[in-house]
Every structure is written in C-alpha cells, then in structure tokens.
Amino acid sequence: MLSLGEFENLVPLFSEHPQTGFCYILFVGATFVSQVTMLNMVIAIMGDSFERITENKLLNSVKTKIKLCSELTGNVETLDEEDDDFIFVATLDDNEEDGG
After folding, report:
1. Which of 8, 33, 34, 93 has its C-alpha lying 20 to 30 A from 73's C-alpha?
2. Residue span of the structural domain in which 79 resides
3. Does residue 65 share a domain with residue 43?
4. Beta strand residue intervals within the chain, DSSP E
5. 20 near 26, Cβ under 8 Å?
6. Contact assessment for residue 20 and residue 28, using Cβ atoms and an 8 Å cutoff
7. Cβ proximity of 1 and 27 under 8 Å
C-alpha cells in the first residue's frame, strides 16, 4: 500500500507507536526504495521499446515513406483520366551513404 500512495492510513499510526522516530525513518526509506524501483521499471520498459524501434529503423522509415506516398495519391495526375490506378515500388539503394 505504501508504493500506491496510501499514506492517510499509515501516518496516524506512527504517532501512537512507542518508537515514532524509527517508524518515520522506515516510512521514508520504504517510500524512497519503492519509488526508485518503479522508476527503474519504467526506464527498463522504455529502453526495450527504444531498442526494438531502432532495430527496425530502416524498415520503419520505408513504411513511413510508402504511407506518405499513399496519402498523396490524389495529388498525382495521370496521363489517362480513366486509368487512375498505379503502384508505388520502394527499393533500397545500397550505394547511398545515408542508408537511403
């Protein structure tokens, strides 16, 4: 209950205890440890997500470019007014230095 923020039920019990100072020290220590643990878990989850995204960086960039091209198909004029269907083909160029 301490890590979930249930302080209202715990703090009044400290004043009735014979070792009030020690109880407050344990309370602050437990709060600190639980918060550090929760933040560590959040950092681990975010690190895993970041690693997964950067692992597929090239694939995600190509998917994004194709998605943008498909959204702009209405702006492309075709030679035949009856034939408005066309296909985008994306290939990777190994000769470019920027990963192109």
Report:
1. 93
2. 57-100
3. no
4. none
5. no
6. no
7. no
